[in-house]
Amino acid sequence: MLQAVIADSHWAIILILLPLAAAVLCFLYARAANIIGVMTLSALVLSVAALGWQIRETGVYHHAIGGWEAPLGIGLYADGLSLLMLTITAVAGLGISIYATSYFKQQDAARFWPLWLLLLASLNALYLSADIFNLYITLELVGLAAVALAALTGGRDALAGAMRYLLATLLGSLAYLLGVALLYHGFGSVDIAILATQAEPVPVLWVAFGLMGAGLALKMALVPLHFWLPATHASAAAPVSALLSALVIKGAFYILLRLWLEIFAPHSGGAETLLGLLGSAAVIWGSLQALRQTRLKLLIAYSTVAQLGYLFIAFPLSTMAGAAVWSAAGYLALSHALAKAAMFLAAGNLMRFGGHDRIADLDRVVQRLPLTAGAFALAGVSIIGLPPSGGFVGKWLLLEAALTQGRWELVVVIILGSLLAAAYVFKVLGRAFTQAPVCQKARAVPARMEWAALLLACGAILLGFLAPFILPLMDIGDPFSASGVQP
Amino acid sequence: MSSDFSNILIWLAVLWPLLLALPALHQRLPFPRHLAVLPAAFLVLFSADSALTVPWLLFGTSFSLHGGGRWILVAIVMLWLLTATLLWRAKHPAPNDYFTTLFLLTLSGNVGLILAADLVTFFCFSTLMSYGFYGLLIHGGNGQVHRAGRLYLICLIVADLALFEALLLAASNTENLQFLAVHQAMSNVPATHFYLGLVLTAFMLKAGIWPLSLWLSTAFSAISSSRALLLVSIPVAAGLLGMLRWLPVGKHSFDEWGLSLQIIGVAGMLYAAFRFYTARQIRLLPAYGATVGSGLFMVLLGVGLTHPSLWHDFAYLANPYIAVSVLFLVSLSLFVRRAQHDQPPDTTFDSIKRSIKWVEKKIQILAQQCSVELHRIHRLSAIAGRMLSRSPDTTRSQKLEKFMDGWSARMIMVVMLGLLLTWLMI
Amino acid sequence: MNWDAWIPLLVVASSLLPGLVIFTLAEERIRLRTGLNLFGALTKLALVGWMFWGVYNGHHFETRLPLLPNLELVLRAGPLALLFVSLSTVLWLVTTIYAIGYLEGSPHRSRFFGFFSLCVTATVGVALSGNMITFLIFYEFLTLATYPLLVHRGTEEARRAGHTYLVYTMIGGALLLLGTAWLYSLTGTLEFTPRGFLSGLGEEHRHALIIIFVLMIAGLGVKAALVPLHGWLPLAMVAPAPVSALLHAVAVVKAGAFGIVRVVYDVFGVDFATGLGVMEPLAWLAGFTIIYGSLRALFQDDLKRRLAFSTISQVSYIVLGVAIAGPIATIGGVVHLVHQGLMKITLFFCAGNLAETLGIHKVSEMNGVGRRMPWTMAAFTIGAFGMIGAPPVAGFISKWYLGMGALEAGQSWVLLVLAGSSLLNAAYFLPILHAAWFRKSPESWPHEHDFGRKETAWALLLPPLITAALALAAGLLATLPFSPLEWAKLISVREFYRP
Known about the structure:
Chain B has 426 residues and is mainly alpha-helical. In chain B, 78% of the residues lie in helices and 2% in strands. The chains are: A mainly alpha (487), B mainly alpha (426), C mainly alpha (499).
């Protein structure tokens, strides 16, 4: 009975509509926003689980809204990759939401929840879209909601950061839209599946890919287009920073990955090399920048730049060993989301605690905020890629692929990136043990905020043991097979 | 006497002093130092020749008490009893003082190495004894004594290293590390010469045999307290015994080694005579006595290495020789101690003057003591003579003649004569 | 349900779970914390004892959990694994008692004991790993669990030491990871196999394999403190004494040495490695480290620093034994894993006692300390003589087998190294003993605590006495069954040189 219900329900639609409805509710009943938000997120986690069960049992989920099939209607599509991204969003989102219930004061909460739930709805929609135009719309929605969130705290830094972000995200969307238009012009469809069959290696395809890739890269802050990210992520409120770093950026990556896998990979013409190069540059440059920072949130923001680089390293490797490499990238994205969210939340705790985020003045946090320090440390372990953690699994699979293919330059980048990550993570942790020269008065941090950060970090560590269960789920519907071996 | 009884005695002789070395124990017992020597004394007196093997201890530990070893044990037991009496008659050490502990550790090591029947056991107990002896040597001493102690320690470490390597060489050539088996195994393998060299160096260092006698003479010129003086004979005896036990004497002819040993022995004796003649310090007498005694032993050993067949004839003398040497050194030390008893010398000049006075009084006794050496030579020749007359075997008598005609024997005579002359001249 | 399959996991969990619980305890719950610690340690001891008996009788203990595609988390109790597990279990128990006494009244004990338990968990995991990936996981876990212990005092000096430690170990870990992943890409398996799993690889991989060997040894050599990768160890002595004891005797340094044993015997296989021509350089490196460490130790006035350099030297005995490549030398190397642990932990306990009771940190302050603390210094003396290699302490047995092995393999230069090391060991330990026993005590000690009539607290005094007695017993009773030596022989026969 229950199984039948789960199998037959349209979980995908619930995943989009539920947060939308909740956003409206939060807007209407601002006082109950916290409860509504957390309950929605919990429901979303369950729905994602149900969707996962569904597609594991019955295969890829495909649904045309209103019965209109492509190329006319709006199609929803869910395979292993979508499931992965939805899971990331729901799980990390839940953690961040719990954190947010304690973090925001009443009036901030009233503005935060509707925006965040809207963002959530658009992200879910993004992961479930089956055509590139819907992808554009959702991407735009995600971007706008994210900008609004970034500006939420209202400080000067936050507004400046949000403006930069707005500029970047609009520019990125514009470029992407141009690419969509070109593709539509060239091949007469926006449906991914149809485009996949019709795409040919003609200039229009390349130009479209160039535009879309550049736009998405801008949204993902791929070096050298990362100028906006550190300022925005560092100046936003802690839960918002966590959302931006952990979730929003992954949306753009998902689109890029989908387009690449379905449409562009067979006709790439060496673009993967360029992406790999930029990814490597991001890993090194981002890590070095993170190492130079004296402020904790900036350090974490640069770490995001660096860790995203790893996802791009997968592109050049995928040409020879498709599925395994993409599994690695997916796993990295998953563990990065949890770990980075935990890191930003921990940083938020530290800011709440000491009123600053200067690394040199952390002043015995290990004793005074042991849970937060633990959360940062565990998240750091996963970011570095030390075993046992989700980061390790991802990097191991990536390393294995690089070694098997003899891509030594990438091997060096992967290892070096880990070492640099270790350097900046432990730079923070080392200071957490010592006494600062100036004694500061400290404010209490709610236990819920500490535990939210710690649980997310523990999740990132736990991922190190869950690979045998998660990797098969990712492969449902063979999302990575399209790029297979080049003909 | 049942072998169980002997075995228990062997155990006790070694372990009892070790046990007593605990301060908590010996501080509560009357005459702990004498008590500690008792099992060894009983062993010597009442036990038959016996052997004890303890397979589970270390690489298999074995002890044995046989005719030769008994001689030495007798001497050592007497020495230790005497020391125990003399050292604690005058003054009692402070309760928080480890002299007794060191004393008992050294005693255990000394008895153990005499009883040891294999290389590893010997090595173990010799280590125990040596480090304990180091403590005795420098205990409560002044800077010069400490310098002597440091010298001893350096010699000891180097010697132990050499012994360890020798041990490894032996162990890589034979499974069984009993002395006899090692003699068999090490007499004719490629590593033999290396083994001989290591063993000789090691024990010459440990026993302070010239030219490696650095620590011995320094210790003697430094020590003012009579108690450590008495104990000097212990490492010397142990070193000589070690050579006797470790070297494959009488198994094979090692001409070069034998010759070198004879040269070293004779040169050592000459050196001792010369030094004593120039230094004229009465308190150095035991040191040079030790050098002469060990020099003589080296000659004996050298002959044994050169002529294995000859060795069989007088091997039984080697152990008694060491025993007698020990007693001889002890009695020498006792006399010196008596001489310096009232007032320790302030300057060399004073010391010489007092010594001369003392020597004048005691010259006769001293001469007697010195003549022990001569007597021993005499006894050797007497034995030789007896053998000559008893044995119709001409080759053997020829050998003996060869030995007695040998240059080293004659040199010994000369040295002894020289020594005697020195005494008289003073 | 087959219980044998879960015991290795339980052994790991028996310190992990108490450790995690301890983290949550309030600072003043001393009894509960102590109880948990001891409960964990004793449970582990019982489980290890059970496995010990089982393995001796040929049982098979193995836990397998899926970890990655085609790779499993394998915990397997072979003879070699058990040797290391037993060492760490026994010494963990002793060190826990010591740490309880040592840290009495000092802050942050819950954190300390939590990480302490994690540290042992990692060590036991390293010991029990049945393949390279499991080893790697626990090896890195060990790095992480040790770091908070190292910087426990929270001083600037501690932070710097911790920083240096991380720089070394992280780079080492990265190299090891690289080597492991490369190896995996060549072979498709990482399972530890007696006499190696590489013999199937052809000649064309020769250069790659040499580089992999170098990478792995470099990665492990950091923890094993092989020169020139040793720089972190002398700095790490800022940690509290129980940590130093654990670091030097059981956990970090040993994990590196143990890893080298594993890589040489169970990954490459000793014959294969010899064929690659990598064993001789390794032996030279170990020999050089032995001499270098001793030489540096000679000039240290800080007692713990001197002991740290001594560790650098002594741990390379293990590597040397492995690198000489013969059954007898291997026995010497493997057994030194245990012997060095027993002796060095004794020395560090004693150093801690001196610091805690009298405030003595320097060798030059140790004059006459033997009169004040006779039992502590007696234990120290046994440990020091063991390090020198004097019979009948355990170090003699190790040196004996190393020397015999070198003779057997025809590498007599090793004898020179051994002799030189013993000489240097004597040169830096005997002056300490001399000063402690024979020099006059000063008027007052630097910072004396009063323990009444006892020389120091029981919890501080008993552990060094126990370990010193064990070190002595390991030497004296070396030929009894279940002695470290006999077990090492068993390992050599069963795992390394099976016909």
